[in-house]
Amino acid sequence: MKKRLISSYDEINDIFVGKIGGKNKYCADYSISEGIFLAIDKNKVPCSIFVEGASDVFNISKSMLENSDIKIVLDCDSLFLSFNMFIEDLKICSIKSENRFGMPELNYLMDSNY
Questions:
Q1: Rounded to whole angstroms, how far apart are CA atoms 81 and 84?
Q2: Can you say whether the dihedral through the CA atoms of 83, 46, 104, 98 is positive or negative?
Q3: Is 61 helix (H, G, I), strand (E, B) or coil?
Q4: How does DSSP assign 13-55, residue by residue?
Q5: Model pTM?
Q6: Helix, strand or coil, per DSSP, at residue 64
Q7: Which residues contact 31 (CB under 8 A, 6 or more apart)?
């Protein structure tokens, strides 16, 4: 399923935020990796990503994080959650963690160029 990604990067505080267009409410925030937080809605569907210390977490320059061509792929089944982030089609992050959040099976492509 393809969703519109609205992303922003605060260079001073080194914080990256990506949210799905049209989603305004969330029920819970989960840490899926060091510095990466995933917010889910009441249906346990992802609605935003928050990354504190983003340049360090992703090990890239702050100027790269200011790019507007960003894609996030979330793939989830009953056991695992996979998070992949791309800037200009370059994979900058790939994480696989246990689905301890009770999220349903889903496959999201969040694209800033949607």
A1: 10
A2: positive
A3: coil
A4: TTEEEEEETT----SEEEEEETTEEEEE-TTS-EEEEEEETHH
A5: 0.88
A6: helix
A7: 37
Task: Report d(CA 63, CA 102) in Å as an integer.
Answer: 35
3-class secondary-structure state, position 79? coil
Q: Output the CA angle 86-70-12, nearest 5 degrees.
A: 105
Residue pLDDT, tens place only, 6-46: 999 999 999 999 998 877 677 788 888 989 999 888 887 88
β-pair partners for 18: 7, 49
C-alpha span between 71 and 77 (Å, rounded): 20
